[in-house]
Structures are given as structure tokens and as C-alpha cells.
């Protein structure tokens, strides 16, 4: 069952609400109805599944804040229904409504909405206080949640003694402490400065991995929406114009408005390794002899080969020097020559932004594997940089600058996932990206850099031929 | 009744008088009750303040000042009240304090609920506003007359006139204070399932308290400014002394009684202002960063 199910929700402010709804249903524009009332939400239908982060994105005045307030009944929809775990919140009496808010839905506010006269601990315990949890227990539970959000030891302070980011952590702790299944976040990170915001987003994702709340997140920041949202609803002038995953929004915008909106999104956080990888040509199976490997190297004009087992499971790589020596010594298999140290694996679902740090520190291309560890592609550093540069003619040059600015944040994501060991600063990446010898290293496994290769098809056939020859 | 539009004459005053007379007979029980209650409150407070030896009272006033504010105010208080005794105005000063305190407590008890209601219900606000304007702009002397006609002379009409005159800022500032509580914080209370009463008690009132205290302070100051008028309707105290001094052109008494009013005013003002700084919100905001 969906946790939240909204169907044909209208919210109109004004004297003649029903009249406005009727005219809107008949196809009138809301700009022509301002005399009768202001239509804040028009015909919104969506459902949010358990454990999902559903982001509602739109500019100010698009109705997103009104929409989130209809979900917990702070505003009553003019028409339409909003079902919370099956029961319609608009039809509840005051008592049931309060019980639902207390036990099923909690909320995080844009400007934190903490009680300034209470300590941080008492603030975090507010939801529990409403649930009539005994004082000692709720203070203890509040402390636990404060620890979880990284505010352990701050319980005795007052909100005004905390920085903005910390205050919002209190807001988050208060909402989490209520232990409701549904969490509404109204522009929760918008009032924070960008670095703190990024930190909070990452923390939210991290918490979500263990808590699996049903989250409705309101934002006007597309990057935030793309980063957090399992699905995103784009709102404009009170209407939901598109609902989809971030990739759908990005690649198949429903109309020009969405297309224009997503134009300057930071694609590194949306595109995945799988979407930029190339076919691995310089690959041999581990049971071949050194001479076959050598032949493949010559064909591919590379200095090292990735090695897989018979089921395409990635084992490591072999280098030309070792292979030549083995061939001279007449060894039968290349298996003893396999090195695993320098092979960096990334999952096909890893966001592009997490690839920069490994790519910068690695002398060979990144190996992209699927969930079963099978090699499905490689990403040479040139390809990575080229993807960034050619991110679509509509984005122009600005996104490239944006992207290099985002590199730093990208590493952070990466660090959290534990995939990359090296933490290079954006300057390092920029410096390392260009030199020729690095390009040479990249070529070692994939053949000529894309664009330089004159006959990709013949390369592919060459590989096949060699594999057949085994 | 004949009405000549060229020589208009409308007996509004007579009409109001009739209404008051009618009210007097219809509500005689209520009026009697109010008079009894105010007499009782005033009488017992006056007895409490005026009976002990003046040094004990000075010590108590100073202690209150110390607790509310600090030792500086306590010292000033002690000197001020000692001076009042030295001017031989101790009893009238205590009577004035009793009158002002009873009037203020009643005014505040009426003003805060009305203010809260006005903040919550638009209709109440729309009705209360012009009434408050009327209460404040009507010259105090003018409504002393009907008050005397209902309650006769003495302490009680003085107290009632003081309540009417001093109440408006209490209502206004309470309404303002509740309204200006951050809307998002109130929403937070609702979002976590709090009842309206719980939101009022745990969110709105604590956050509104500094402004409400400023209103209470205003109420007390206005009440003190009414003591002279209260004296005119026969209330005992410094007001009565000043009225007496005025009628006899007794300059020394007038100056001394006026000075005593100022001392009492400063004391009550500083103590209530200091109490305003001790609300939970003010204390929380004072916590060092």
C-alpha cells in the first residue's frame, strides 16, 4: 500500500474556492481567476511508496509548500483526497487528525521552527512529548537521536547557541525521534549555506539507508532534487508537470519548461558509470597463454590487459613486460602474472561524480562491473573528461566550469561510499587531466582514445578473432 | 419627539443616563458583587501593606527588587521608600500601591484572555479594537461621572476607572505578541499533533511573554497616572493628597505627594520590567554562545 496517495488535489485560497476549481477543471487558466481566488495547487495526483524519497521541486510560488501542507492536513484541500496509509486526511475529525500527525507524519521546516525557550534536548523530544512519552524516557530517546544526527553532547544548549546547520539537525532529530513512518521536509536545507547543505543531504541519504522512511522532500534546488530523489515531481504554477526518476527528468523532459529547468543541472550526480563506460576491448581470459595475450596487446596497441575468468568475472590485469618475459620463458598460462593492486572497480550504478577521485589516481581505466562482479565496461579518464565536455550542446560552456567546481563534492560522495582511496583536490584533477603521458596510460587498455581511432570496427573484430582463436 | 433639522438637538447624554440607570437596577446584584470584591481586595491589600512597621515593608520591597533585578534597584528602592516615610506620606503611598495593584491585577486578568481571543478570532479583534480606542481616547474625567453614578464614591470607582483606563495596552500588546509568534513554530506544534491549548501554553505564550510583559508594564504605568483622578472621586492615597493640595494651593504637599508618586512609579516600573527579562525565552536567549 502506498504511504501517501494524493488524487486530484486542488487547493484554492479565496472566497469562492469551489467556483475556481470548477473553472480550472473546465480548462481556465489560473491567472484569469485571481479575482475569485488563488489556486495554489491544481489537480495534483501522485503516490509515495514506503521507503521512497519523493522530491517535489519547483520555483517559489509553484505551490510546493502548499502541497506538502495538505499532506499533513495543515491545509485542507479544496477538493480531492489525500490518503495517508489508506485513510483520507481531509475527512478526519480534529482528534484523528492530531493522532495521525503525532504518530504517522513528522515534519522538518525550512527555518527550523525550533522552540527558542527550550533546550536542544527538549526540542528534540517535542514530538515524543506530544505522544505522551514519560519525561525521562523521552529525554533519553531524544539524546539518542541527537547522537544519530551528530549533535551528541549539545542537548543542554539552546537553539540560538547553534549554527544554522546544527539547528536543522535538531529539527531533523525532532522529526526522527517521533519515529513516524512518513517524514515531510519543507525546503529543509534551503536556508543553509551550500557546503552545510551538501553535508546534510549526504547525511540524510546515509540515515535513509538504515531508516527507510517515506520522505516527501520539497526543494527549489534541482541539484538537490536530483541527488536525493528516488522520484521527482516538477511543479509549475500549481500543477505537477512531470513525475519521474532524475534520469527520466533529465533525459526525457515532459515539456520545454522542464527542459529549460534541467539545463544547468550538475549531471555528474545523475549520470552513472554505466552510462559513460566503453566496451572493454583489451580483455583476455585468464586461461590463455602469454603469446595470445601478447598478440591482443599488439592488436589493441596497449601495454596492459584486463583479465577475466570464463564467466567474465574481473580478476585483475597483466602488463606487457611480464607477458613478454613469460612468453620468452615458455610459460603456458598468464594466471600467475595477474595483478589486482592497480585495478579500480566501480559499480555501473555509481554516479559519475564519484568517479573522479579514482580516475585521477589510477594509471589504468576504471573497470565497471555489474552487481555480480562481471566486467561490463571500462572508463578511461579521457572518456570521463570527454563526457563532461560534451554534455550536450544546450548546456554551453558554463556547466564545464560548474562541473570542475563540483569535483570536490564528488570526491566526498566517493569517500562516503568507500570506493576511492585517493582524495585529490579539484586543482590536482585539473592538472592531471591534460598531460599527454596520462593520455598514453589511458590508451593502454582501450586502444586509441575515442575520436582518434580510425577504425573501431576492425579493433572489435580483431578481439573477437583472437577470442575465437583460443 | 419633534426633531428640527435646522436646530438639531439630540439628547444622547440623557439617553445614556437612562441606560445606566436601567443597568443599575437590572444588574444591581452584579454591581454589588463587583463592589464587594474590589472592596475586599483593596481592603486586605491596604491592610497588609500599611500595618507592619515601615522598615519591615521597606525591607520587603527592597528584597523583591533584589530578586527581580539586582542590588542596585534594591538600594534605590530602600532610599526611595525611606524618603516617602520621611515626607510623612507612608500611609497614602501604601493606599496608592494597593489601589494600583488591585486595578492592575484585574486589568491584566481581563486584558490577557481578551488579547489572546482577539489574536485567535478575527471577529473578536474587529470588535475589540474600536472599543479599546474608545476607552483610551475618551477623557478619563468624562467616564468618571457614570462610574460614580453606578458605584458612588470611594475606592471602588477609583479602581474601576483605573481598570478601564489602564487595560487597553494590555489587550493590544497581548494580541500583537501572540500574532507575531513565528508562524512556522506554531505550524511545527500542529504538525506534531499538539492541541490548540497545548500550542498556546507551550509555544505561543512563552514566545509572546516578553511583549506581554511590556504590555503589563504599560498597564501599571497608566494605572499610576490615574491615581490623581482616583483621588478626585474620593479614593484615599497620594491622589487624594494631591487633590487636597490643589484645592488648598498647598505647594509643599503637592510637590511631596507628586514626588512620592514618582518613586512608587519607578519602583513598579523597574520591577515589572525586570520580571519581563526573566521569562524562559529571555533566559534562554541570554545563555552564552
TrEMBL record, chain A:
Residues 277-333 form the CBS domain. This is Glycine/betaine ABC transporter ATP-binding protein. Belongs to the ABC transporter superfamily. The lineage of its organism: Bacteria, Bacillati, Actinomycetota, Actinomycetes, Micrococcales. GO terms for biological process: amino acid transport; glycine betaine transport; response to osmotic stress. It comes from the Bacteria. Residues 15-262 form the ABC transporter domain. GO terms for molecular function: ATP binding; ATP hydrolysis activity. Pfam families: ABC_tran, CBS. The keyword Nucleotide-binding applies. Keywords: Amino-acid transport, ATP-binding, CBS domain, Nucleotide-binding, Transport. InterPro entries: AAA+_ATPase, ABC_osmolyte_uptake_ATP-bind, ABC_transporter-like_ATP-bd, ABC_transporter-like_CS, CBS_dom, CBS_dom_sf, Gly-betaine_transp_ATP-bd, P-loop_NTPase. Residues 407-470 are annotated as: Disordered. One of its GO terms (cellular component) is membrane.
From TrEMBL, chain B:
GO terms for biological process: choline transport; glycine betaine transport. The chain crosses the membrane at residues 45-67, 98-121, 141-166, 219-239, 251-268. InterPro entries: MetI-like, MetI-like_sf. It holds the Pfam family BPD_transp_1. It is a multi-pass membrane protein. GO terms for cellular component: ATP-binding cassette (ABC) transporter complex. Its main location: membrane. The keyword Transmembrane helix applies. GO terms for molecular function: amine transmembrane transporter activity; carnitine transmembrane transporter activity. Residues 93-272 form the ABC transmembrane type-1 domain. It is found in: Cell membrane; Membrane. Keywords: Cell membrane, Membrane, Transmembrane, Transmembrane helix, Transport. Belongs to the binding-protein-dependent transport system permease family. This is Glycine/betaine ABC transporter permease. The lineage of its organism: Bacteria, Bacillati, Actinomycetota, Actinomycetes, Micrococcales.
